[in-house]
Amino acid sequence: MYHHSGNVAQQTAGSATGVLDHKAPDTEAILFQRCTWCGTAMYHRVLCPVCRGSDLRTERSDGTGTVRHSTVVHRNTPAARNVSLIEMAEGFVLRGRVMGPLIGIHSGDRVRLSTAEDPVRGEPVFQLVDEPYRAWT
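== ChsH2 rubredoxin-like zinc ribbon domain-containing protein ==
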């Protein structure tokens, strides 16, 4: 489960602010924060980047998104790998890896969260929803 590793105080039941739900460890999910003042979704933040509010509510993402940018990295790894910025359906952006051919991942490709974990960086791993047929067009 991918979640903010900061210090999270357990609060009383019924209050969703700052509480991480650990009741479903068997499902992979991305936990993100949403500002209760302006509604901005963000990933791994302490303050809202829009209004600077500190009242953030933890929510669970459905795991689908779109590749915003992807690049191939050759350093500090035994083999080349991709690093992508994924814009999630909830509106926040995070860095992760997309499984597939390195040259076959482009901006605009739809992805969903995979159960795999990046062995090098421990970042979320995604898989392509639609197979890329760009070479045929």
